[in-house]
Amino acid sequence: MNRFSIIMAAYNAEKEIERSIKSVLNQKFKDYEFIVVNDASTDRTSEIVSKYSDIKLINHTENKRAGGARNTGIENATGEYIIFLDSDDVFADENILSRINEKIGNDIPDVIYLGFEAIGDGFEGEFIPTEHNSMKENRIIEWNYANVWDVVWNRDFLNKNNIRFVEKKYFEDFVFYYTGVLKSSSHKYTDFVSITYSSGRTDSMTTLINPKKIQDLYYNMEILLNIYNDLEDEYKKFIPYILKDHNDYANRLLDQMR
Question: Does residue 97 register a pLDDT over 80?
Answer without folding.
Answer: yes
